């Protein structure tokens, strides 16, 4: 997927998300994010759209202005649908006016802000739509190749140097002594080998023997590894090797679903 296809999916997924949440009870709990209500989820997703729209649209070299311009979701949930789709449209407009090499700040340190943020919004849409689906008892679907792309975003973000610098507590819990985890999508191109080292987690896109391997449909891998679905509730996935190592990896992602 490229920038335009990521953004296209963001708009499409946001339209579905907006339809689901519009007019719903703001106090509805979000089981996959135990500390959040539906209002918190809507606020997070819509505010992120607007933050990224400003970062890309104004070609910001640092994020403080975008953070300070935070726009909360409307208190009236009957306005949520329009607010959500307006935010996604603003983000699309910003990306449509930018080139991939347009200088825009991003936390990865890769100096590729436009591609970074298009993929991050796509990853956010893919995971948080799953949160809304669980909260509102809706069916979640994501085609294999987009699901593999969302999983790539998830794993790449969680193992990036910039992320570790911003989340030292998370980094400390991910350090290791060479333990390896292999994730393999069986319905779309996508294999990842994560090796836990003392100073980082090295992520390779390869097929290799590992201490533990989890394989199956890309969408189910995404939901399990992002803590949106328990491993026991995903019978399509096959596990071989050190279950405790995989459990530790997944358990350590608890902060992302607070």
TrEMBL record:
Domain MDMPI C-terminal: 145-247
GO cellular component terms, semicolon-separated: plasma membrane
The Mycothiol-dependent maleylpyruvate isomerase metal-binding domain, residue ranges: 11-133
Protein name: Maleylpyruvate isomerase family mycothiol-dependent enzyme
Domain of life: Bacteria
Alphabetized InterPro entries for the sequence: DinB/YfiT-like (IPR034660), Maleyloyr_isom (IPR017517), MDMPI_C-term_domain (IPR010872), MDMPI_metal-binding (IPR024344), SCP2_sterol-bd_dom_sf (IPR036527)
Alphabetical UniProt keywords: Isomerase, Pyruvate
GO molecular function, one term: metal ion binding
Provenance organism: Kribbella pittospori
């Amino acid at each position: 997927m490229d920038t335009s296809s990521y953004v296209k999916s963001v708009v499409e997924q946001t339209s579905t998300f907006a339809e689901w949440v519009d007019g719903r009870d703001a106090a509805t709990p979000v089981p996959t994010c135990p500390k959040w209500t539906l209002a918190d989820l809507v606020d997070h997703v819509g505010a992120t759209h607007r933050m990224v729209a400003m970062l890309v649209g104004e070609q910001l070299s640092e994020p403080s202005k975008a953070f300070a311009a935070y726009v909360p979701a409307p208190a009236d949930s009957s306005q949520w649908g329009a607010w959500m789709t307006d935010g996604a449209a603003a983000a699309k407009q910003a990306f449509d006016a930018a080139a991939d090499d347009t200088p825009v700040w991003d936390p990865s340190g890769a100096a590729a802000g436009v591609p970074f943020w298009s993929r991050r919004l796509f990853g956010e849409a893919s995971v948080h739509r799953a949160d809304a689906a669980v909260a509102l008892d809706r069916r979640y679907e994501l085609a294999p190749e987009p699901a593999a792309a969302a999983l790539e975003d998830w794993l790449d973000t969680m193992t990036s140097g910039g992320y570790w610098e911003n989340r030292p507590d998370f980094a400390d819990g991910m350090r290791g002594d060479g333990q390896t985890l292999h994730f393999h999508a069986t319905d779309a191109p996508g294999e990842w080998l994560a090796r836990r080292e003392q100073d980082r987690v090295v992520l390779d896109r390869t097929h290799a023997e590992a201490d533990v391997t989890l394989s199956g449909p890309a969408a189910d891998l995404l939901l399990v590894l992002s803590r949106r679905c328990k491993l026991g509730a995903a019978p399509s996935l096959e596990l071989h090797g050190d279950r405790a190592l995989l459990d530790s990896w997944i358990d350590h992602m608890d902060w992302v679903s607070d």
